[in-house]
Amino acid sequence: MATIESFNRSELKKSNPLLTKFRTTVETAFYGKNMQEVTDMTEAYQLALNAAGVVVTDLPVLHAKELGLPEDAKVLVENGGRIIGRTARAKRIIGENKEEDEILQAIIMDVIYQNRLRHYYKATGYVGLDKDFIIKAHIAFPEGNENNLYSWLLNFQWESPEYREMYAHSKAYNEGDIYIYTDPDWRHPDYPLGVAIFEPDKNVACILGMQYFGEFKKGTLTLAWGTGHRNGYVACHGGQKHFRLPNGGSYVASFFGLSGSGKSTLTHSKHDNKYEVKVLHDDAFLIDLTDGSSIALEPSYFDKTQDYPADHPEQNYFVTVQNVGVTKDHEGKIVLVTEDIRNGNGRTVKSRYSTPNRVDKFEEPINAVYWIMKDDALPPLVKVDDAVLAATFGTTLATKRTTAETLKKGESTDTLVIEPFANPFRVYPLVEDYDGFKELLSHDEVDCYIINTGFFMGKKIPKEVSLGVIESVVEGTASFVPFGAAPHLSYLPVEGFNPDFEDKDYTKLVRRRMQLREDFLEEFNAAHPSMPLPDESIQALQNIIDAF
Ligand SMILES: Nc1ncnc2c1ncn2[C@@H]1O[C@H](COP(=O)(O)OP(=O)(O)O)[C@@H](O)[C@H]1O
Ligand SMILES: C=C(OP(=O)(O)O)C(=O)O
């Protein structure tokens, strides 16, 4: 069996590394008499359908049978309050602050005690969709949160007979099953935004005071990515697709970007059917460092609804929806109002059938890493041809946040922020991702690009341009020219978006942006002296600054 769910009684000793205070406290709650186990999708759907806070639309769920749902299943909507995105700063990791750990442990014990008389639902699912990586996860939600429980079972893989069989014959990992205890209704004056507490290497979490589905999805992935990382994989917050060209050539591209920056848009694009495109996933996967193959972690997509108005065919694949409006059509049918009219970050758990060309594993090693940045000093596509510099740009991925995330006071969606590898979910030292990506990028077959999906010198780069530059790389027609005198950097000329290296204001801006990245590394190292990023990385950026 892949992860550890049960023990020989002789293993139940203090010396067992899985038996920590936090994990034991959380797991114990799962066996309370107040817990009702939800074991199949129909039951989860019925619970969500009948939940008081849910709007039942008249939109049918396509492929209901394959999803384990009743034939007449309808798209369900549930909106939260003013918080419409993830709140990264609510994350706490056990072991990072001993004093706060004591407070959090006490809070968790009180929450579980107070909730012992409250009706709860628990469910089990799989994360990872291949026999080489499929691990078990358990989650618990209190009554009133049935739609999140149903969405979680849709998003991850429910225990269908097919996957139970895969799990039974899957690779074993010396890691515990994932346990996540939630209470979205919890409130605490010291944690007004809620709190998400993780003990990463024990695969346990407690998510309190937050209702946005992204918290439960990304909370589960946080632990699964960490498990993958500890077992020889590179953890990727990104999308990956495979192109088959008319001449028989093939190309595997991966896109790494912060929430809302374009992973799904670039991954799902069918490029006007110019190529045969297969999709691994648009948000989460693992790359095996031994052979470069990749495994998807989730069957479904949790995508933005902003680009999909009521008559868009993509709505055919919606199953649950959050952060949207609802109205009546001429036939009196309850339908969706999307395009972020009601509020930002409209989201749907969309079934895997939205990509008929969906696969769960790419055996072929990747050919390219695209760091999605929204740094307006960079043209639409820059090529990086050195592994140290390529991993350094991943480490200092500079971008902008969107409504998918709750912003800090003083921060706006115009603020350029650095989010290493576009992954705010890392629960292990950053240098380990630097090393993993550097290893991957040092293979001759793996190229690295920076793709800017934001603005270049004040001018918006439309998605058609971003897709166009990718197509010219895929087709081998892209002709890169040196990015000024910068070592190891070149760019693809695109009409209307070409840099002017004679313009002193422009070169000054590039220098400033490289300095921003270098400062980030210096500050990071000052704050993390025991796990610093290597000097080679700082030097790689300095070389660019010196060239301008
Ligand atoms: N150049 C661009 N490339 C990709 N997406 C873009 C671009 N310009 C604007 N967009 C819009 O930005 C949004 C990106 O959202 P999405 O692809 O869902 O992000 P993610 O998957 O990273 O969360 C979409 O609404 C898309 O239309
Ligand atoms: C769902 C989320 O991520 P993404 O926008 O990357 O899909 C999220 O972070 O809340």
From TrEMBL:
Q: Which GO terms describe its molecular function?
A: ATP binding; kinase activity; phosphoenolpyruvate carboxykinase (ATP) activity
Please state the Enzyme Commission number of this protein: 4.1.1.49
The top EC class, named as a word, is lyase
Quote the InterPro entries the UniProt record gives: PEP_carboxykinase_ATP, PEP_carboxykinase_C, PEP_carboxykinase_N
Q: Which UniProt keywords apply?
A: ATP-binding, Kinase, Lyase, Nucleotide-binding, Pyruvate, Transferase
- What GO biological process terms does the UniProt entry carry, in alphabetical order? gluconeogenesis
Listed Gene3D superfamilies: 3.90.228.20
Which Pfam family would be a valid example here? Answer: PEPCK_ATP
Spell out the reaction equation it catalyses.
oxaloacetate + ATP = phosphoenolpyruvate + ADP + CO2
The annotated pathway is: Carbohydrate biosynthesis; gluconeogenesis
Belongs to which family?
Answer: Belongs to the phosphoenolpyruvate carboxykinase (ATP) family.
Return the protein name.
phosphoenolpyruvate carboxykinase (ATP)
Source organism: Trichococcus shcherbakoviae subsp. psychrophilus
